[in-house]
Design a protein that fits this description.
alpha/beta, 6-stranded parallel beta sheet, 3-stranded mixed beta sheet, 14 helices, about 45% helix
Length: about 325
């Protein structure tokens, strides 16, 4: 499913909706990522029903015209398609399958789109439970961060029944500028976690490199200026560590707690597939140490604090 493919002629909801514009859309999870995605859907589709446990997160959407529902079940009762952006697979399971979950509110033929990074096991479990109720499920984790979410320029890693995924292109294009079909349920999770294995893993090496240069008495300004001009460059080096962490700025863009969760999912997926994970386990130890030190709510650049705790005072 590339951005150049034509959408399927199938009904966007599977419920006989007259057109995409008739579809009643819901969104659950209005955090750093979800809020931007939801606002784009509201502005472009003209209708949205939202739910979140944090009343403060609801305020901007409700003020802009979104309807509010008190529970996932209640939201499901009035929606044809529901998107979710949630921080942890246990929360996704509760929101979808719990006593007040979506599964009890949605009608047969409705669609759930999981935008969260939940791992293969969770999305397969959710898919099976929803399929038993004739509710469709699309696995669609996202790439890039809050700025791209607000701009509607996310990378979307879509997986599941291909026709179902294609039928949602009209909606997904409101939040993503690159939409790729990755394969059957769980394939999107595999691509997203492979991405985070690398993007979040660089931080452990960058932290060690900075500590080594500092201990040797090297000019750290040169470290920050020179390395981005060499083969050592990466997006995290430039935008997370040089631009922020090495200046003592840990304002969350992608929280360390989320990176820690993703890395645990990376190792679990490798174990389930029987693929190598020695490098991932070494990186996971860094994230575990940083989380244990109380840095979970800081940006994932706080990984640098494991080897360079003095950065917190700069």
């Amino acid at each position: 499913m590339s951005t150049t493919n034509r959408a399927s002629a199938a009904s966007p909801t599977g419920k006989g909706a007259g057109s995409a514009s008739d579809s009643r859309i819901g969104f659950i999870g209005l955090g750093l990522m979800g809020s931007g995605m939801a606002m784009n859907i509201l502005r472009k589709h003209g209708q949205l029903t939202v739910s979140d446990v944090d009343a403060r997160a609801l305020e901007p959407l409700v003020s802009a015209g979104a309807a509010e529902m008190a529970s996932p079940r209640a939201l499901g009762e009035v929606c044809d398609v529901v998107l979710l952006s949630l921080p942890d697979p246990s929360i996704s399971r509760q929101v979808i399958l719990g006593p007040e979950g979506l599964i009890h509110g949605l009608a047969a033929g409705a669609t759930v789109v999981g935008m969260s990074t939940d791992g293969i096991e969770a999305v397969r479990e959710i898919h099976a439970a929803l399929a038993a109720r004739q509710i469709r499920f699309v696995d669609c984790p996202v790439g890039k961060g809050p700025t791209a979410a607000a701009a509607g320029e996310l990378a979307l890693f879509v997986s599941g029944d291909r026709d179902t995924c294609e039928s949602l292109r009209w909606l997904l294009s409101m939040i993503g500028s690159k939409i790729d079909y990755c394969g059957p349920i769980g394939a999107g999770q595999a691509i997203k976690l492979a991405n985070n294995l690398l993007s979040c893993g660089y931080g452990a090496l960058i932290s060690e490199a900075y500590a080594m240069a500092k201990k040797a008495g090297a000019d750290l300004d040169i470290f920050c200026e020179a390395l981005p001009q060499t083969a050592a460059n990466s997006w995290p080096l430039q935008n997370v560590f040089v631009a922020k962490a090495f200046k003592g700025d840990f304002t969350p863009y992608f929280r360390l707690s989320a990176a820690h969760k993703d890395y645990k999912l990376v190792v679990a997926m490798a174990d389930a597939l029987g693929t190598p994970s020695s490098a991932a386990r070494a990186v996971l130890a860094y994230y575990t140490a940083a989380a244990a030190a109380g840095h979970g709510e800081r940006d994932f650049g706080a990984l640098a604090l494991v080897n360079n705790p003095e950065l917190l005072d700069e």
